[in-house]
Amino acid sequence: QVQLAESGGGLVQAGGSLTLSCVTSPFTLPYYSMGWFRQAPGKEREAVSCVNAIGGSTWYADSVKDRFTISRDNDKNTVYLKMNSLKPEDTAVYYCGAERSDCDYGVLYGMDYYGKGTLVTVSS
Questions:
Q1: 83-99 core/surface letters (b: 16 or more CB in 10 A; e: else)
Q2: pLDDT: is 28 or 117 the higher one?
Q3: Cα(24)–Cα(13) distance, rounded to whole angstroms?
Q4: What local confidence, expressed as pLDDT, does residue 18 receive?
Q5: Cα separation of 93 and 72, whole Å?
Q6: How many beta carbons lie within 10 A of that of residue 10, not counting itself?
């Protein structure tokens, strides 16, 4: 069982920045691809970004490309999502996910595990 705990959400003005963190169970990151998803009020959960366990290649949704950056620190068991130039439409609960397969699979079909989420609110 993989445990995931997100933090770093909060209230920020449009144009501002936030960095989300996801702490995982030990020995998770070398074997799991890690992703960030979000769910806005009244909408379905959507994939935002993902980083593959093997090779470290990354994927971003078109809506966040060039604004968000995903990274991981295996020594700290932590995955990060650096969010710049935030927009009101980025307002959502952000979830960290872990997928035993790869990002292609996890982004399309969902991850094996999710955290409880952290709320990001962007004011206009």
A1: beebeeebbbbbbbbbb
A2: 117
A3: 29
A4: 98
A5: 20
A6: 13
